[in-house]
UniProtKB/TrEMBL annotation:
Name of protein: Protease
Molecular function as annotated in GO: metallopeptidase activity
Signal peptide span: 1-23
Alphabetically ordered keywords of this record: Hydrolase, Protease, Signal
Protein origin, superkingdom: Bacteria
Pfam family, one: Peptidase_M57
Organism: Chitinophaga oryzae
Biological process (GO), any one: proteolysis
Length: 274
């Protein structure tokens, strides 16, 4: 969905509509400067897809909705902690620590649908009774800020939202960005859809990778993408399936509507944050 950050895309493939952190829109595409081969090599070495990478302020968006800063790319990832997953649920090397913990979330500069969508995502997480609890605040600083950005189609896709992974210090990623361009959610955003995207992006903020990262064609269609095992921060979560999991909330691409945790997602979250 950027680290992560994750974006959801709506891709028109074989007559079906799929949603990930971007939406297919071949018209009025605005191209950005090419990403250098050196940067693409760094992204691949981190274990992320190098397809449809584009530069943003302070770094790059990969896999649709995951934000990698230039600082992130310069770090070496410890390989001894990694087991490469195929279609199982899996996490990054960094997780949120100092548990139990309340994570505050603030929505700033966005409309009612985004506020209600945030409340829906928070309600869904808190219903699991994890050692992480989420609370929306309306003033002061917050652990995660949800704010808008305005960007039209780029390279045939439009970004819906983005986020990132936990810090080395064990704090959640502190920013989720949601696209306010009309091509993203329309003039009257559906609360359950917006909430499902935010729920996905929060998953990245607390350390979840895309369930089908090693074969994004499973949920997005197109050619299979398998980046290999070079430095991948993808730690297998015991108890999750080794076969495609059609309804996972962390799939790279969803159906463009309401999607919450399935039974395997709950196993994964309880393994990390019981």
């Amino acid at each position: 969905m950027k680290n992560q950050a994750f974006f959801l895309l709506i891709c028109l493939l074989a007559g079906s509509i799929f949603t990930s952190c971007q939406k297919d829109n071949k018209q009025s595409s605005t191209e950005k400067p090419d990403v250098s081969n050196e940067v693409l090599a760094q992204i691949k070495a981190k274990g992320f897809s190098t397809r449809n990478v584009h530069a943003v302020k302070g770094g790059y968006l990969v896999e649709g909705d995951i934000f990698l800063s230039t600082k992130d790319l310069s770090k070496k990832t410890p390989i001894n902690k990694v087991r490469v997953a195929k279609t199982e649920q899996y996490s990054t090397n960094n997780l949120v620590v100092s548990l139990p913990r309340v994570i505050t979330v603030k929505v700033t500069g966005l409309g009612t649908a985004f506020v209600q969508g945030t409340d829906l995502a928070i309600q869904r997480y808190n219903a699991l009774n994890l050692s992480l609890r989420f609370q929306r605040v309306t003033s002061g600083s917050a652990d995660i800020t949800i704010q808008g950005f305005y960007e039209g189609p780029v390279g045939g896709y439009i970004t819906l939202g983005s986020s990132g992974f936990p810090t080395d210090a064990g704090d959640p990623f502190d920013l989720i960005e949601m696209n306010t361009h009309p091509y993203a959610y329309g003039s009257n955003p559906n609360v359950q859809y917006v909430g499902s995207v935010i729920q996905h992006e929060i998953g990245h903020c607390i350390g979840m990778r895309h369930t089908d990262y090693m074969d994004r064609s499973y949920s997005c269609g197109g050619d299979p993408i398998d980046e290999g095992d070079g430095g991948v921060g993808a730690v297998y979560l015991p108890g999750t399936p080794s076969y495609p999991d059609a309804n996972s909330w962390m799939l790279s691409c969803s159906n463009g509507g309401n999607r919450t945790f399935n039974a395997n997602d709950i196993i994964a979250l309880n393994y990390l944050y019981h």
